[in-house]
């Protein structure tokens, strides 16, 4: 992020330097909050940029806790953006997937703050209201206390406890316990290898009976516009177009604390692929074709969370 001086006239250089120092220190946390609430790295960056502008214009001498002030501002802005984004996504053509972010530059990120970071969980979080999502993220991923979350959301502590409890129950009914990172990588590699060989039997052996394949292309040709359900259909889809796998350059990437594959054709990144897996096998295959989301992933390599 570029820090542009929008401070009121009369602000001293030392005061601005201090404001920048505080913000830089907290920026990874602010981005992490906004990203988990929004499922979009681009939108999260916009939120953090707006918080920076507000931070400059604030009477910082009256702020008791910069961390609380900035986290609160980020959360409220993210909720507002999420509410408008929900309306925009109603016109999205086909399945919508969160924008993945590259976590390879800082492996500790995925290990320390894996909560609400995996793509499959971010997708489930979309089923919650923006306020529910924010409360859950603040509690589970960043360990804020209920009174702190109540202050941020301008709700009572009792209401926040109810919101978080309701969110946990909703997610618990849909989210499965993930395999560890090494097993996830093994399953993804096995899936890609079997798909390249056209090995339907091996693919079906990797998938759960209720597996689903989601293709995010916003209407792009070649991207399935509806979820593909069931082990046999998901396996058939992965091998239905043998020409898809010819002449490709497959590169392993680290996305949202898990393994992924970026698929290049003629030197251009065209498709991002990852899976969600439990001890029973791969239950979700996620194909990302949307060029803007792929570009956002590649741009995220210099960002930490």
UniProtKB/TrEMBL annotation:
Domain annotation RNA polymerase sigma-70 region: ranges: 24-82
Residue ranges of domain RNA polymerase sigma factor 70 region 4 type in the record: 120-171
Transcription among keywords: yes
GO biological process: DNA-templated transcription initiation
UniProt entry keywords in alphabetical sequence: Sigma factor, Transcription, Transcription regulation
Cleavable signal peptide: none
One Pfam family matching this protein: Sigma70_r2
InterPro entries tied to this protein: ECF_Sigma-70_Domain, NTF2-like_dom_sf, RNA_pol_sigma-70_dom, RNA_pol_sigma-70_ECF, RNA_pol_sigma70_r2, RNA_pol_sigma70_r4_t2, RNA_pol_sigma_r2, RNA_pol_sigma_r3/r4-like
Record has Transcription regulation as a keyword: yes
GO molecular function, one term: sigma factor activity
Similarity annotation: Belongs to the sigma-70 factor family. ECF subfamily.
Binding partners and assembly: Interacts transiently with the RNA polymerase catalytic core formed by RpoA, RpoB, RpoC and RpoZ (2 alpha, 1 beta, 1 beta' and 1 omega subunit) to form the RNA polymerase holoenzyme that can initiate transcription.
Protein name: RNA polymerase sigma factor
Name of the encoding gene: sig3
